Amino acid sequence: MHSQVGGRHAARPESGQVAPRHLSLLAYLLFEGPLGVNELAARLEVAPSTVSLMVGDLSRQGILRRREDDADRRRTIVSIADEHHAAIDDWLGQGAVARRAALAPLTPAQRRMFIDTLLAYEAALSAP
What pTM value is reported for the model? Predict the structure, then answer.
């Protein structure tokens, strides 16, 4: 299955779905590289258990890879699977251009309110 986003195609596993709540998580992994679950939770401002659920969803679809940290076996490192990296980069890269264009005319306070609203929306979608 392919999903058209921003006029471009992003490959998705046949049975899988990437929900809006996954976009910020994927963006952090794309732009910052592999991160621990607790690091992702801090960036997303959600509980580590919420991140674990999202990572589980995307791992089952083969979009993300989880591995133990060699330095600390209790820590799980999350990364985008190699076979999906290019599609996610293409997909989110287009979003970054559109996001910059949409946010450019806003004041810093308006941008903060917009981002806070999106974070609240994503948190509500992730809530059980």
Answer: 0.64
**27-77 pLDDT, tens digit each:** 889 888 999 999 999 988 889 999 999 999 999 999 999 999 888 888 899
Are 84 and 11 within 8 A, CB to CB?
A: yes
Among 12-26, 30-44, 114-128, where is mean pLDDT lowest? 12-26
Please choose, from the candidates 58, 31, 59, the residue with its C-alpha nearest in 3D space to the C-alpha of residue 43.
Answer: 31
- How does 7-38 read in b/e, with b if 16+ C-beta sit within 10 Å? eeebbbbeeeebeebbbbbbbbbbeeeebbbe
> Within its chain, how far is the Cα of 12 from the centroid?
14
67: closest CA among 19, 97, 59? 59
